[in-house]
Design a protein that fits this description.
mainly alpha; 3 helices; elongated
Length: 82
């Protein structure tokens, strides 16, 4: 599994965790629980921001080449040159 896929999976897990914390936060009446959940969500946001920066820094992966793509390119070049 490549690094980009791992990063995206980790981000999905963080977003899922934030969603669960948000759901719990809506019903939390205890000030300590609210503080705990808000802190957990802030930590997840910081990690998501770090992962987004990591994704932006990665070079774009080339698209998979179709079969016989070199033949198609060669054929197109021959048409242009004739």
């Amino acid at each position: 599994m490549n690094n980009r896929r791992n990063t995206l999976l980790w981000m999905k897990d963080l977003i899922d965790h934030m969603t669960r914390c948000h759901d719990q936060l809506q019903w939390a009446s205890d000030g300590e629980m609210q503080l705990y959940l808000a802190d957990a969500m802030l930590g997840d946001l910081v990690e998501c921001q770090r992962l987004c920066k990591e994704l932006r820094a990665e070079p774009a992966e080339p698209a998979p080449r179709a079969r016989n793509s070199s033949r198609g390119a060669s054929h197109a070049r021959d048409l242009v040159m004739s």
